[in-house]
Amino acid sequence: MLKLIARITLLTLLTCFTTLVSKAQIGYDYSQYDVGFSVGFNQFYGDELTSKSTKAVNFNFNYNQTAFVNYIAEMQFGKLAGGDANNDPLGRQFATDYQYYAFRIQVQGGEILDYSENTLANAMKNLYAGVGVGMIFSKLSSVNRYSVQIPGYYTPGPNKAQEAFIPARFGYEFKIFNRYQRPDVKIDLGYQYNFILGDDLDGFHAGKLKDSYSQFTLGVKFSLGGVTSYRKRINY
After folding, report:
1. Which of 133, 150, 205, 211 is deepest in the core (most CB within 10 A)?
2. How many other β-carbons are positioned within 10 Å of the β-carbon of residue 212?
3. pLDDT, tens digit, for every residue of 124-163?
4. What are phi and psi of 19, to 5 degrees?
5. What confidence category does residue 66 fall into, taking pLDDT thresholds of 50, 70 and 90?
């Protein structure tokens, strides 16, 4: 009889302790792995006088070292375009299909801010900035190298390009919490500027400036697991 009582008491204490530990983690837990995708709206800056807006789609895998420090591997597919063969004096016009592969490090405000007792800091904890490195591959789908307004004027260049680039990004991550106050879904609104380390992306060899393009993105990320705890409560 005494052994039975002892077992019941031990089991009760163990259950209470487990419940207490579980409750203590509510609001502190996060997933170490996310997968996501986004759509982007591009603006190219190169050797053309007229800029055009194009679209892209992005797929990414995230390793979250903490709830607010993220390592991101991503690939993107899209189109870039610019120029106006009839109205630009130099006649340059192009459209290219591209794909890129990049790695970025991203730090959010929550990693350095004390947001526990400050409404403004709590709102700013999801602001982020980051930088990385990548390779972009492009192939022209259309190009005009001759000027209509200046007879005989021709701009040479390759029809394919392979360039290294530096993506610099900032944005805001809206975290959606589950019933355990864990951020399992994230809406990402960002602006990214891609510094191309060459001048071949638009297919023209002209000028002294390198190519570049900017993009506004809207995406969503979903947690994959690897739940662990942060040093402070994530949601206030």
Report:
1. 211
2. 17
3. 999 999 999 999 999 999 999 999 889 989 999 999 999 9
4. -65, -40
5. very high
